[in-house]
């Protein structure tokens, strides 16, 4: 995902005109009666933008983001979507700090598509753990500019120089006459002022909210069922839709044997053939679902020249894995350092191993849904879980056959995402909702069952990695050659060129920090027959597992302690060395084991490092074995994101990443047989249950390096730390995930 | 058919085997109770039926006619539920929040039956899935609520 930005060009850019939807959203609709910062925007609106087409610098137009209500609370439009990672709270902290408004006084919602919000180098998506680090400076400037506008408005109103005014949270203060004006009273006048530039920012030592464990602003609503997700939305006059997809991608619906009977079922409105699916619309979702599942559909194989990717009938995970393993050679080079060939030739000892990791499902708890509504004015409104509103807008326009400016995308909060809600053709329900709304002239709310979701999710790719290392006579690694085999998600969706390695296929093997003099990382591209996508921490989710477990194999072959060997190879890298020492200290001092714990279990520990998404992470896991399964007791994580916004949210995100990483290591794999995934619900695709959650201990290290990401970095170190620990107990290396495939026994018996 | 939800009687004209979950969400507009799996695997749809934590996605509405049903919408009107919610807030449990209605209802059922649960009681009762991995915070919040 690191290289996504340059590749996005074709997919999104649209900044020549202000999208129509700026004037239509609830954000502004709600404010029309309120005298508030932001009201001037819709009035200027699209006509103005089309005539003058002023270049919009993303993240600078205060009124596109901030609307101060009469009661001085702030309605804030976030460029990034909330899906559990705490971004809405982070935005309230960052903007509130400079605007001088307590984060508790913020209401935050996802912003519509538009050039104001393309904060990631002219593009926008919620992913790559980029939201805070890519917008931090701009959002501080924005808050500071808005505060200055309020001060200016107050100065005019009071007829005093601005320099004599100050602010307290939510109000301007004129000390000389002991007066104070709430922001809400100044908002209208302030909104009409030009946006000042280069307003001085607060000094770090004066921060009240940035860097503090500020409470999440969404917590009470999420504890009382009031938080509203896409699945909860309703529009007047809508029909409910359910679908049945062809089990193999590419299949098309043929005859419907009992169509008339199904049409006569209670509440059924109509039956529709869609590309690769059949839909039933009804007056409730349950009726639609029951009806669509009652349909007796004859499925036809994909026609030659099918425009979707066809899943072969003889495809199986086992076969694909065998295919990946059979590929030989060193692949296309991605990273080289020194001369790996001669160094291997001259090595005292060679260590070799090959690893694999399976397809994974996102399995976010909210199944995907979408509402589509065509309006009388020719616009189309779409409510859909999404991590990239501009991309969805462009695609929805294509599906509807209208101009992108006529598509209004609403981006509700997400019931988990982990990479699920990017634009993946065939994996999102909103196209179907648009087709159905168009066909019926009614708004349609389409919801996929959990079973359809498991059938059509975009999976973490399957991958194989081969390593070859050379050790010198003292057991120190002097050369390391690695090759990954498979396909990266970035290349799949944003374009791949045959002469260039997709970084998402090698990240986590490339970019490692150990001082091994001669290194080469290569990649062999093999098309993945499945629909693949971004899964929390992307390539790192498996590549760090491959590398860091191979690292322990090198250490064992050279008769070195794996922690000490890492420390030695980080001798010239103080940031990383400090981090691995921090995690060791956090765990009470490094000990590999095996040792006997107080409860009598025989335990061991494993360590791993990762450098994902601009942050640095060191992880230690402590495990025992019980009835052939790994029990993880503790996970210690030291994370260095450079600098931070909210330590409480970081700790929560690390807990979450540990859970997902552990789930993938212990339990998860999508298995295809005959072109069909075996599991269609959580019973066949188990995810980490509460009783397998370890204690998680987090230390945040602020090294002062450039700000890194938080949502994903806690994950990649977990599978290798767990597997390295388990291998100590079993006495055998484990090279394939998930661990549930193996019956693990303690070599001590 | 008559059913009583949060103390209020509702008259429904609906197929009797419709799952309670969809009656709540689509017929009555009470969307706080969530759909996650539909097959009693995840617990996102947990409500209380006569005080028992119940997975509403597999509970036909006819089976609960005559029972007292409590959903997340009324949780703060219940003294135990209110304590649970305050604990969920103070422990900052939620991430995406999607599973949390079900978690709060499961915790409320537990503490109504066992006001001072042991760690084993908590582990036995709090079995709903959370893909965001808030399990440690959930256990901490249940302990917190039990002490409140
Ligand atoms: S939706 Fe009922 S248990 Fe998952
Ligand atoms: S908080 Fe996201 S599923 Fe539990």
Automatic annotation (TrEMBL), chain A:
GO molecular function: oxidoreductase activity
Source organism of the structure: Ancylobacter defluvii
Taxonomic classification: Bacteria, Pseudomonadati, Pseudomonadota, Alphaproteobacteria, Hyphomicrobiales
Record-given protein name: Oxidoreductase
SUPFAM superfamilies: CO dehydrogenase molybdoprotein N-domain-like, Molybdenum cofactor-binding domain
Database matches in InterPro entries: Ald_Oxase/Xan_DH_a/b (IPR000674), Ald_Oxase/Xan_DH_a/b_sf (IPR036856), AldOxase/xan_DH_MoCoBD1 (IPR008274), AldOxase/xan_DH_MoCoBD2 (IPR046867), AldOxase/xan_DH_Mopterin-bd_sf (IPR037165), N-heterocyclic_Hydroxylase (IPR052516), OxRdtase_Mopterin-bd_su_IorB (IPR012368), TAT_signal (IPR006311)
Occurrences of domain Aldehyde oxidase/xanthine dehydrogenase a/b hammerhead (ranges): 224-303
Pfam families with a match to the protein in the record: MoCoBD_1 (PF02738), MoCoBD_2 (PF20256)
From TrEMBL, chain B:
Keyword Disulfide bond: no
Molecular functions per Gene Ontology: 2 iron, 2 sulfur cluster binding; metal ion binding; oxidoreductase activity
This protein's UniProt keywords: 2Fe-2S, Iron, Iron-sulfur, Metal-binding, Oxidoreductase
Domain of life: Bacteria
Domain (2Fe-2S ferredoxin-type): residue spans on this chain: 1-75
Pfam families: Fer2, Fer2_2
Residue ranges of coiled coil: none
Protein name, as recorded: (2Fe-2S)-binding protein
Lineage of the organism: Bacteria, Pseudomonadati, Pseudomonadota, Alphaproteobacteria, Hyphomicrobiales
């Amino acid at each position: 995902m690191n290289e996504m930005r340059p590749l996005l060009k074709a997919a999104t850019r649209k900044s020549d005109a202000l999208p129509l939807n700026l004037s239509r959203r609830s954000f502004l609709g709600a404010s029309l009666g309120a005298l508030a910062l932001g009201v001037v925007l819709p009035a200027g609106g699209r006509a103005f933008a089309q005539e003058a087409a002023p270049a919009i610098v993303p993240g600078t137009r205060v009124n596109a983001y901030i609307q101060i209500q009469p009661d001085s609370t702030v309605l804030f439009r976030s460029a990034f979507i909330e899906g559990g990672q705490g971004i809405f709270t982070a935005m309230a902290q960052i903007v509130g700090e400079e605007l001088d408004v307590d984060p508790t006084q913020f209401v935050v919602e996802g912003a519509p598509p538009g050039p104001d919000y393309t904060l990631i180098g002219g593009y926008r998506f919620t992913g790559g753990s980029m939201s805070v680090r890519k917008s931090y400076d701009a959002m501080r400037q924005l808050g500071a500019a808005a505060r200055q506008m309020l001060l200016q408005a107050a100065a005019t109103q009071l007829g005093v120089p601005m320099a004599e005014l100050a602010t307290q949270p939510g109000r301007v203060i004129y000390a000389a006459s002991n007066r104070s004006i709430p922001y809400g009273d100044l908002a209208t006048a302030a909104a009409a002022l030009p946006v000042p530039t280069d307003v001085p920012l607060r000094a770090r030592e004066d921060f009240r909210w940035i860097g503090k464990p500020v409470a999440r602003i969404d917590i009470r609503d999420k504890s009382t069922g009031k938080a509203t997700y896409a699945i909860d939305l309703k529009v007047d006059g809508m029909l409910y839709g359910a679908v049945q997809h062809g089990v193999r991608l590419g299949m098309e619906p043929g005859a419907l044997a009992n169509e008339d009977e199904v049409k006569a079922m209670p509440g059924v409105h109509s039956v529709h053939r869609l590309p690769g699916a059949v839909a039933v619309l009804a007056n409730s979702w349950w009726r639609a679902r029951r009806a669509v599942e009652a349909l007796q559909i004859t499925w036809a194989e994909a026609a030659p020249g099918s425009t979707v990717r066809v899943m072969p009938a003889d495809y199986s995970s086992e076969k694909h894995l065998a295919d990946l393993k059979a590929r030989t050679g060193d692949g296309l080079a991605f990273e080289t350092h020194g001369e790996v060939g001669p160094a291997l030739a001259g090595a005292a000892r060679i260590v070799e191993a090959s690893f694999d990791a399976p397809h994974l499902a996102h399995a976010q708890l909210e199944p995907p849904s979408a509402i589509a509504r065509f309006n009388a004015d020719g616009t189309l409104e779409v409510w859909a879980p999404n991590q990239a509103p501009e991309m969805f807008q462009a695609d929805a326009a294509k599906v509807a056959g209208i101009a992108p400016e006529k598509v209004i995308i609403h981006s509700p909060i997400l019931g988990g995402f982990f990479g699920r809600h990017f634009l993946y053709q065939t994996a999102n329900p909103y196209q179907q909702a648009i087709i159905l709304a168009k066909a019926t002239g009614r708004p349609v709310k389409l919801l996929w069952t959990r079973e359809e979701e498991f059938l059509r999710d975009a999976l973490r790719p399957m991958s194989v990695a081969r390593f070859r290392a050379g050790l010198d006579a003292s057991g120190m690694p002097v050369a390391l050659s690695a090759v990954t085999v498979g396909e990266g998600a970035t290349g799949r969706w944003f374009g791949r060129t045959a002469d260039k390695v997709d970084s998402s296929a090698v990240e986590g093997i490339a970019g490692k920090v150990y001082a091994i003099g001669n290194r080469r990382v290569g990649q062999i591209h093999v098309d993945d027959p499945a629909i693949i996508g971004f899964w929390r921490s992307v390539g790192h989710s498996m590549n760090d597992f491959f590398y860091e477990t191979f690292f322990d194999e090198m250490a064992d072959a050279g008769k070195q302690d794996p922690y000490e060997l890492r420390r030695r190879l980080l001798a010239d890298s103080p940031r990383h060395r400090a981090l691995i020492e921090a995690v060791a200290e956090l765990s009470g001092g490094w000990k590999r084991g095996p040792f006997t714990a107080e409860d009598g279990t025989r335990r061991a520990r494993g360590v791993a490092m990762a450098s994902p998404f601009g942050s640095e992470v060191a992880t230690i896991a402590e495990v025992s074995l019980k009835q052939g399964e790994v029990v993880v007791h503790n996970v210690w994580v030291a994370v260095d994101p450079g600098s931070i916004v909210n330590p409480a949210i970081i700790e929560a995100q690390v807990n979450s990443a540990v859970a997902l990483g552990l789930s993938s290591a212990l339990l998860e794999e999508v298995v295809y047989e005959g072109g069909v995934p075996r599991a269609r619900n959580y019973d066949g695709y188990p995810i980490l249950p509460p009783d397998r959650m370890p204690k998680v201990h987090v230390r945040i290290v602020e090294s002062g390096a450039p700000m890194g990401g938080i949502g994903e970095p806690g994950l990649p170190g977990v599978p290798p730390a767990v597997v390295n620990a388990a291998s100590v107990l079993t006495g055998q290396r484990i090279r394939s995930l998930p661990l549930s495939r193996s019956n693990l026994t303690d070599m001590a018996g | 058919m008559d059913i009583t939800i949060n103390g209020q009687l509702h008259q429904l004209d609906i197929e009797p085997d419709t799952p309670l979950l969809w009656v709540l969400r689509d017929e009555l507009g009470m969307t706080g109770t969530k759909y996650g799996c539909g097959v009693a695997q995840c617990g996102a749809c947990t409500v209380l039926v006569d005080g028992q934590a119940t997975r509403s996605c597999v509970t036909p509405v006819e089976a609960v006619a005559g029972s007292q049903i409590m959903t997340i919408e009324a949780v703060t009107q219940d003294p135990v539920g209110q304590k649970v919610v305050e604990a969920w807030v103070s422990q900052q449990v939620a991430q995406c929040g999607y599973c949390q209605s079900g978690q709060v209802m499961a915790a409320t059922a537990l503490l109504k039956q066992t006001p001072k649960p042991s760690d084993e009681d908590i582990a036995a009762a709090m079995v709903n899935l959370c893909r965001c991995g808030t399990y440690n915070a959930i256990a901490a919040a249940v302990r917190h609520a039990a002490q409140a």
